[in-house]
Amino acid sequence: MSETELFLLFTRPLNRAGIRYVIGGSVAAIFYGEPRYTHDVDLVVFLNEVAIRKLPEIFPAGEFYLPPFEVMVAEAVREKRGQFNIIHLDTSFKADLYPTGRDEFNAWAFRNKRLADYQGDTLALAPPEYVIVRKLEYYRDGGSDKHLRDIRAILNISGSQLNLNDLNDWVKRQGVETEWKKAEAGK
């Protein structure tokens, strides 16, 4: 498995366990835009207690670091912004898991996900509009230009596939209009 495919360490077990997810962040941006190196995969996941109890089985100790069960449950029950990491010990590649909570934007992403066949695996990708808006939020919160570069690559390569009504609606709803103007100005 090449460095650019390390995300499969996480998506394959989730697929086998039947745990629903969508890939967001940089890995999704790579699918919609230009390839680049990333140190992690962002996964928005539907997690209840039953699914959380499966995680140690599908990500076994000795191969993966998992936070304590109580931490995963606490993050999964947050209404918004829950998050924890799973780390593959041999490679240090990390999955940032974002439980769906009661976040309507996450629910929209699941309803509008895109399925992609990749090396015999079916991957669930968050729609590009979701990836753009989340990257605008990351840019607002952290200021890293890599998010703007990812957005511009998506616009240049997959722009014709975007639902601009949905994109503009979520830009407004998530309060990232200023960041969106900056991203659009540089394309």
Structure, explained:
It is a single chain. This protein has a domain at 3-127: 2-Layer Sandwich (Beta Polymerase, domain 2), CATH 3.30.460. The chain contains nine helices and seven strands, in the order αβαβαβαββαββαααα. It has helices at residues 8-17, 25-32, 49-58, 69-76, 104-111, 128-142, 145-158, 164-173, 177-185; strands at residues 21-24, 40-45, 64-65, 84-88, 94-99, 114-118, 121-125. The strands form two sheets. The protein has a five-stranded mixed beta sheet with strand order 1-2-5-4-3, sandwiched between helices. A hairpin with a 2-residue loop joins β6 (114-118) and β7. The relative contact order is 0.15.
Q: How confident is the prediction overall: mean pLDDT? A: 94
Question: What is the approximate shape?
Answer: globular
Specify the structural class: alpha+beta
| Beta-strand percent range | 15-25%
Identify the CATH architecture of the domain at 3-127: 2-Layer Sandwich
Helical fraction equals 40-55%
- In total, how many beta strands? 7
Question: What is the CATH fold-level name of the domain at 3-127?
Answer: Beta Polymerase, domain 2
Secondary-structure element pattern, one letter each: HEHEHEHEEHEEHHHH
